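Support request from a user on the community tier.

User writes: "When I paste my structure tokens into the form, the page sometimes reloads and wipes my input. The last time it worked, I copied everything first. Here is what I submitted, just in case something in the input itself triggers the reload:"
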């Protein structure tokens, strides 16, 4: 068993039943992804559309690709035909664009609503009051080619565990508050990365996005 396969096995052994591992493969070569694939991993996360499209074209077709990075509306068309989940939906404009492109190709696209809780201006995501206003206007209900599966977010980049825990608990609370607006498929809380996924799971995460702990430090 190679190092990547060993890492995946070790991480999965720590995850409770019902928590999904997304292997964050951005900036890593196809050979590394294939080692993860051959160990049984099927869900991979990318953050750049050009890289995602290229990998989708050359790697096994049963991979479930997820978009986890900031997505520009002019890049949506390129990934809609094959994407499994778009985690980083952070605006009404992007939601409308995904719905429109999904309708064009005859698909229903699963999405997560990215909410900003981190104490950093550089982090993207909806401000919660803005998201509530968008949802209360009923706009999403009219988007028949979108299925909102849950919430995604990132904790503050800090060594302060109490701050990170507070961010995760806030995201979990937001998901709980939003759940009555959706059906039973609203079941995903995506939070936690290599350095903090164990704490995220403690706080209720059902999906963790792990890169460097699987593939090593990524090459830019």
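"...and here is what came back when it finally went through:"
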């Amino acid at each position: 068993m190679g190092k990547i396969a060993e890492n995946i096995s070790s991480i999965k052994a720590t995850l409770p039943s019902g928590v999904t591992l997304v292997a964050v493969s951005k900036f890593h070569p196809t050979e590394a992804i294939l080692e993860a694939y051959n160990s049984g991993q099927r869900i991979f996360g990318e953050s750049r559309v050009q890289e995602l499209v290229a990998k989708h074209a050359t790697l096994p077709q049963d991979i479930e690709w997820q978009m986890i990075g900031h997505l520009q509306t002019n890049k949506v068309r390129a990934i809609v035909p094959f994407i499994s989940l778009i985690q980083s939906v952070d605006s009404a404009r992007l939601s409308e664009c995904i719905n429109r492109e999904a309708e064009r190709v005859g698909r229903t696209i699963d999405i997560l609503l990215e909410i900003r809780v981190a104490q950093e201006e550089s982090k993207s995501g909806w401000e919660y009051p803005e998201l509530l206003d968008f949802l209360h206007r009923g706009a999403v209900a009219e988007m028949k080619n979108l299925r909102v599966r849950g919430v995604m977010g990132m904790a503050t980049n800090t060594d302060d565990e109490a701050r990170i825990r507070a961010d995760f608990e806030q995201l979990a609370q937001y998901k709980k508050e939003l759940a009555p607006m959706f059906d039973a498929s609203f079941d995903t809380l995506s939070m936690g990365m290599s350095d903090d996924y164990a704490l995220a799971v403690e706080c209720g995460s059902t999906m963790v996005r792990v890169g460097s702990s699987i593939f090593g430090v990524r090459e830019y």
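Agent notes: The reload is a front-end session timeout and is unrelated to the input. The mean pLDDT is 95. The CA atoms of residues 5 and 40 lie 9 Å apart. Escalated to web team.
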